[in-house]
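Researcher: Sequence recovery benchmark, item below. Answer with residues only.
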């Protein structure tokens, strides 16, 4: 079998987000964030379109698996020890904005929240693991959603700047890798998580969405600027949800359509955050959809001068598009839409499995931007079973990851500069799109079920030992 050479110092690790692992949703003075008010279940992201939904917790009507999640808030030491046993070099996590500023708009930070992340970072260092921190991972304070309409409002930039200044000041000696907004482009598909509002009217779909994006780009420029000033040795990246878009066939109409979809979804945000400019194609799009951005003096210069150091991205699936798709052409559960690709199998949640698509992605991104890439999410959501002898034989997960790591090895041979790999949900966690526990990604099993039952005990899956070997051999043994 062919072996692959990964660069020395390659950042092997795993990825999570605060709202999906921590629990302790009201502990340490934490305020409510968006994820806290979205219930468990397949309709999770649509619930806010229900009449009367008011961004409050309603335990009579719904369940909320992430209120306790996997209780990382109390069990982080045990979990970090397990990551260290696998040999993690890095651990991707997010800071919950509402632990630091419970309502988002206070003038003073919450010391209990700051102290919690101090403890986590210290524990990571004790175990030889470097944190990779996402500043905002689908965790906008509910108060900012209700009072200001999320990122629609320019005022949120000021609150974000205060939050960023606070965490940079506090953790400047402890965190070297940062990322601004998780999957920033996902607002085009599920706006509530990233942009902090639901699309209820046609005007929201265009004017509000792109105005909100402008505010996030300004916020991102501010974060990069502050990072350079306060932590000259740190690296700060953007984070994009990337899915290569294939034309369904070679008809030029379908090829053009796939290109347009890809540019809008995969490249619009990256072009602004990496190249520092609104790309030409989006200006045409703005004109055609009558979008007029309110841009303040200095915004475009700020964006131009403060582009990111690296591109963090998630990769789960590719997408296949045709211009005249009918409902029957479309897959079940492919969260990014598109038609069924007859060449690919899908996960139990309908996400197309496409390792070669990762090599294509790495090449497309590197050809376009020529800056280091970091795969900060990838993985297979699957149902795991604990055998009577207590083992969990997740060979399907090992196959999935092995094939994706091989694709990374090929891309490195193609000349792509790849910094690291942090598979998603390295420990089982609550799913973002469905709020389920049963959609498991981890190397570490957590005994917790969708109905909230379970002991929260951690168990090593077969993939735990496999990934440990992968890291120990720097990708030599797959
Ligand atoms: C990414 C998100 O979209 O995909 C994560 O950044 C999320 O928060 C992951 O958990 C997997 O999606 P899901 O819906 O299976 O949890």
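Model:
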């Amino acid at each position: 079998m062919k072996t692959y050479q990964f660069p020395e110092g390659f950042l092997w690790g795993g990825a999570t987000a605060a709202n999906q692992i921590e629990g302790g949703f009201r502990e340490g003075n934490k305020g409510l964030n968006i994820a806290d008010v979205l219930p468990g279940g397949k309709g999770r992201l649509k619930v806010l379109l229900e009449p009367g939904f008011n961004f409050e917790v309603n335990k009579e009507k719904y369940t909320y698996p992430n209120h306790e999640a996997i209780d990382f808030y109390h069990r982080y030491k045990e979990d970090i020890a397990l990551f260290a046993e696998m040999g993690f070099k890095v651990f991707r996590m997010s800071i919950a904005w509402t632990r630091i500023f419970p309502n988002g708009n206070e003038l003073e930070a919450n010391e209990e929240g700051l102290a919690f992340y101090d403890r986590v970072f210290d524990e990571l260092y004790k175990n030889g693991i470097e944190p990779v921190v996402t500043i905002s991972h689908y965790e906008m304070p509910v108060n900012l959603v209700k009072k200001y309409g999320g990122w629609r409002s320019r005022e949120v930039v000021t609150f974000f700047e205060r939050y960023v200044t606070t965490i940079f000041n506090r953790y400047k000696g402890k965190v070297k890798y940062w990322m601004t907004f998780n999957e920033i482009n996902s607002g085009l598909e599920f706006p509530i998580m990233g942009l902090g509002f639901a699309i209820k009217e046609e005007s929201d779909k265009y004017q509000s969405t792109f105005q909100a994006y402008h505010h996030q780009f300004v916020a991102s420029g501010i974060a990069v600027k502050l990072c350079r000033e306060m932590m000259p040795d740190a690296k700060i990246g953007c984070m994009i949800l990337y899915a290569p878009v294939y034309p369904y066939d070679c008809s030029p109409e379908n090829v053009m359509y796939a290109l347009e979809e890809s540019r809008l979804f995969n490249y619009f945000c990256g072009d602004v955050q990496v190249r520092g400019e609104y790309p030409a194609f989006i200006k045409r799009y703005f004109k055609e959809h009558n979008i007029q951005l309110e841009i303040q003096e200095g915004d475009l210069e700020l964006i131009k001068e403060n582009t990111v150091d690296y591109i963090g991205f998630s990769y789960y699936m590719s997408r296949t598009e045709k211009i005249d798709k009918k409902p029957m052409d479309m897959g079940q559960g492919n969260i990014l839409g598109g038609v069924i690709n007859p060449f690919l199998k899908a996960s139990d949640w309908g996400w197309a499995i496409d390792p070669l698509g990762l090599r294509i992605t790495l090449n497309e991104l590197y050809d376009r931007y020529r800056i280091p890439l970091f795969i900060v999410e990838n993985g297979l959501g699957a149902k795991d079973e604990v055998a009577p002898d207590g083992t969990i034989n997740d060979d399907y997960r090992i196959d999935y990851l092995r094939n994706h790591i091989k694709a990374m090895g090929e891309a490195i041979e193609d000349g792509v500069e790849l910094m690291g790999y942090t598979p998603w949900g390295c420990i089982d966690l609550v799913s973002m799109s469905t709020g389920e526990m049963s959609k498991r990604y981890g190397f570490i099993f957590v005994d917790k079920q969708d109905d909230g039952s379970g002991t929260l005990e951690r168990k090593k899956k077969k993939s735990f030992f496999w990934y440990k070997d992968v890291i120990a051999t720097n990708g030599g043994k797959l």
